[in-house]
């Protein structure tokens, strides 16, 4: 298995060397130790890094949080903060850089590092997969958006002249409803859940496991209010359901409702083409 390559950004050399030794015991490869954010940024472009351990308080003009924000904007590398400062104000500011975890100093053994690093690497892999799925979905979604036709220019121009799209809009029923089991179902509203990429990703995440709101928020990379809005919309269609377990609410797929949607959609398509 390929070793995970790690950069340690820490201005206390003794601390940095101690972390490096622990990483080697865990079979990680600490390929760089730097004392400042500026030096980390200058070296990062020449290193094939998998992970960065970043102290919050650093030598130089940039602290660890500012450095992490720059790296997040320009590179796709997970960052874990190592810090002796666990106060709420510092942690709230650190959250703005979307770190993959925190390790509080002093770090005395491998167990202080291993769980946080493994979880960070797993979450990074999941986010990368979701990003790729998101990009694929956006390409597919363009096929269904009249204002983003992906057609050769020699085909697109005659279509624009004949104004087929405007005619199609007039012929469409914006409130397409189907009655099933005494309930009126609006297929257009249901389809909106799939046309929104964030809601589509939430459905993908819930395929394999139940999740809490904060877990969904972290994985789709949106604010709590935005994540809550998407969850309410999905609950309204019945595609997901929530239940309380202790003080937390968990969400999971409502698979019977999804299968009902697939059945209704397939039948509507058959009727349309017959």
Structural account:
Helix 2 (37-44) runs parallel beside helix 3 (64-74) and helix 10 (213-220) crosses helix 11 (224-237). It is built from 12 helices and 10 strands. It has helices at 13-25, 37-44, 64-74, 88-95, 114-142, 153-162, 164-171, 187-195, 197-206, 213-220, 224-237, 255-273; strands at 5-9, 29-34, 51-55, 79-83, 102-104, 177-180, 183-186, 211-212, 240-245, 248-253. 54% of the residues lie in helices and 17% in strands. It has 2 domains: 5-126, Response regulator (Rossmann fold, 3-Layer(aba) Sandwich), CATH 3.40.50; 173-273, Arc Repressor Mutant, subunit A, CATH 1.10.10.10. A hairpin with a 2-residue loop joins strand 6 (177-180) and strand 7 (183-186). The protein is an alpha/beta fold. The strands form 3 sheets. Strands 2-1-3-4-5 form a 5-stranded parallel beta sheet, sandwiched between helices.
Keywords for this entry:
274 residues; alpha/beta; Rossmann fold; Arc Repressor Mutant, subunit A; five-stranded parallel sheet; three-stranded antiparallel sheet; 12 helices
The chain-level mean pLDDT equals 78
- Note poorly predicted spans: 143-175
Distance between the termini: 55 Å
Provide the β-strand percentage band. Answer: 15-25%
Q: Give the assembly state of these chains.
A: single chain
Query: Taking Cα atoms only, what radius of gyration do you get, to the nearest Å?
Result: 25 Å
CATH class of the largest domain: Alpha Beta
Say how many strands there are: 10
Q: Structural class, from helix and strand content?
A: alpha/beta
Total domain units: 2
Helicity, as a percent range: 40-55%
Query: What is the general shape?
Result: elongated
Sheet with the most strands, sense and barrel status: 5 strands, parallel
CATH superfamily of the largest domain: Response regulator
What is the succession of H and E elements? EHEHEHEHEHHHEEHHEHHEEH
State the strand order across the main sheet: 2-1-3-4-5
Per CATH, what is the topology of the largest domain?
Rossmann fold
Tell me which CATH architecture of the largest domain applies here: 3-Layer(aba) Sandwich
Q: Helical region count?
A: 12
